[in-house]
Amino acid sequence: MRKTFLWLLLWLSPLAYGQAQAQTTISLWNAHNPSSYLDDVLALFHQQNNNDVIKNNFLSEKLREEVLNQASTNSLPDVLYVPADFVGINQTLSASLVPDEWLSEQLDQRILASGQVDGLQYGIPLFQGNHLVLYYNKSLVTNPIASFEALSSQASDQLLSHAFPITWHYREMYWFVSFLGAFGGWPLEDDKVTLDTPAMVQALNYYRGLKDKGLVDPNCNHDCGVQRFIDGQSPYMINGDWTYQTLRDALGDKLGVALLPQAEAKPLVSMFSSYVLVFPDPDQDKLPALREFAKFMQGERAQQIVYQNGRLIPANLDALAGIEQLRDDNDLVIEKQMTLSRAMPNDKLMTIAWIAMQRGFNRFMDHGYTAEQTATMMQSLADAQINRAGLR
Questions:
Q1: Is pLDDT of 14 > 70?
Q2: CATH class of 132-271+346-388
């Protein structure tokens, strides 16, 4: 699939930065939820620029596969707002290179790199983080756990009265990878998919053991877990910084944030990344509006809204400095956990690794595969796809 370069389109269109169009409608697919903060930013953009952004939310758990399916039929929107690892499949998405003049000088360079592949900029990051933390309900928990072993042995009658003392999106691989990291594994090492490893076997067995002990409900997805935690049905929840504002609104001062618990004295290793704006094969007539939109979303006012209404750490350093006095103890724990997290790879192989892990894990949970069989299957699935795609 051909690759489109924005700078080439700009060169071919002498009117691109000339006379402004009366109004342009931009289609945007959003994969970050909850996203009320994004609605607020888009409304302000419309007020200031007289352009409309029509947002559609991607709520599917099979996000990557669905986007790839849409890409194969040339049915992608003007803008994708997706996890940063999507830039690794820039060719499949016909993602355009982002011109330097579209980028704000105030962006944190470390976070800016999350939108790059081989030093080329395919995505514009809007915030930093996207990592997991441990949330706890202060009305149910006095001292938050530091390990899953402590959770198993905690003697609080009030805690043990709950059917599942902790909740998270058990079947989603973004959570599972934190356990893989604890046992010394990682989906990609040295530009290779590494799934058939002793660390994977250890992580799978430990992970299923938590389910077998009745600590976590394997059939409770993201939204189910959030609701159980808010309702006080589970005193603890592992979830991302993206849910912080929702939980804060619901629980107020009862909300606590702690570092991720350890597994067999090994710290969980969450991934961190950013969410980025990606421009698939842009319409030449929309370039002026897309440039306005890109610059606006990186601006200090929009970034402040991202923090104030979404509680997400801005990528704009000026905006970050401006919220210093607004951060509380929970905010500081979230930021500390990010420093202990590991960057999600942007390599195109990461998408293959995600899909292989998910399919193998489903066999592990539902079809009686051993951990060893599962690790072997995951690697085989990944290798087969790598060969088909000609990536070796």
A1: no
A2: alpha beta
